[in-house]
Design brief:
The chain is of the alpha/beta class and 435 residues long. It has 11 helices and 21 strands. It has a 6-stranded mixed sheet with strand order 4-3-5-6-7-8, with helices on both faces. A 4-stranded antiparallel sheet has the order 10-11-12-15, covered by helices on one side. A 4-stranded mixed sheet has the order 20-19-18-21.
Amino acid sequence: MNTPEIEYQPLNVIRSYQEKRLATALDYLTKFSPYYRRLFRDHHIDVSGIKTVADLQHIPFTEKYALQVYNNDFLCVPREKIIDYITTSGTLGDPVTFALTDADLDRLAYNEKISFECAGAVPGDIFQLMTTLDKRFMAGLAYFLGIRKLGAGIIRVGNGIPELQWDTIRRISPNTIIVVPSFILKIIKYAEEHGINYRQSSVRKAVCIGENLREQDFSLNLLGKSIREKWDIELYSTYASTEMSTSFTECIAGQGGHHHPELVICELADKDGHPVAEGETGELVVTTLGVEGMPLLRFKTGDLARFHYEPCRCGRTTMRISPIVGRMNHMVKYKGTTLYPPAIFDVLDNIPYVENYVMIASDNETGNDHVLVKIGIRRQYGLDVIKDIKDRFRAYIRVAPEVEICTVEEITKINFPDTSRKPVKFIDKRKNTIH
């Protein structure tokens, strides 16, 4: 394993290193970014005075809507240098386009290589990719590039189709799968129904994307426990976003995703934009380092997290990010309790008879938040399903939302609209949400 040396340095050395990289990034934006040149001019910002990460507070945040409205102005290179075009979801309905140069693709490969190494991957491993590589999606491409750079094998199966997943495992014997964790339960269920001895398969590890596996104290959550009780494989969480072109992946200690200081500067901000105290939850704000095509400065991700600074037993001294608490604008205040959709999802993913679901937040007659959970089940069970589900909610999150039982087909149509690459599990119909 060839872990970058900076990941083992004292925090003050890492901070000094990042500040040198920040100066280079600000100089690049000043020279080549129409959007940031305008921002610096309009706000009378002299970037030569930005010396430290703390000094970044003098620069306004970059909001996602700005990427949508002024998309071309974020581009720092001529169009002929763009190799790959990617889209991510936007706040105004249409997707946001991201453009990557050849150097950006190399950076993406490097990021994923060191992230997989963090999770114990080595050359010669075989990864089965259970996520899409098409539909302008960054994640699948990033995994492919990183695994290739690592010197490991890749099987591009794509998402869904448990039968094909198990046929591929039988034929090629991968030792690692890259997968949305709730899908692991689906392929386990398929294996049990079809007599597949999954516990004796070649798979020994899962790198999990898109959903939390752990509580804030890093113990396994309900979803993580459900997987481990069925299948004793190593589980590694990873968190990333298209905008930062960087990922945070757990090591064997399972104590949060490790920060790569050469790739991104991270801040946590409260709802008023001020830095949060150490150990507190805030919105993740990122400044990309080494991005050529569309670098970002103080970009608000919308994701709520905590930072952990104590050294990890793997030897790395870099900051670690907690499991994502939720999305800033997805917070629900229901019956006096603050909720985020991941808490609802975790309960539902742990109920064996729940096939699929969608959570809908709306305003009630008094203007407060109302929560309806529509649930798809395949057959009738010998119990009061709604009561059982509400009892589970109360046991885990203290309150029970309204529950409506639907067919699996009805929920599938909501989860997978024609243009979506990710399952839609949360719909926000509220007029006034937190931004």
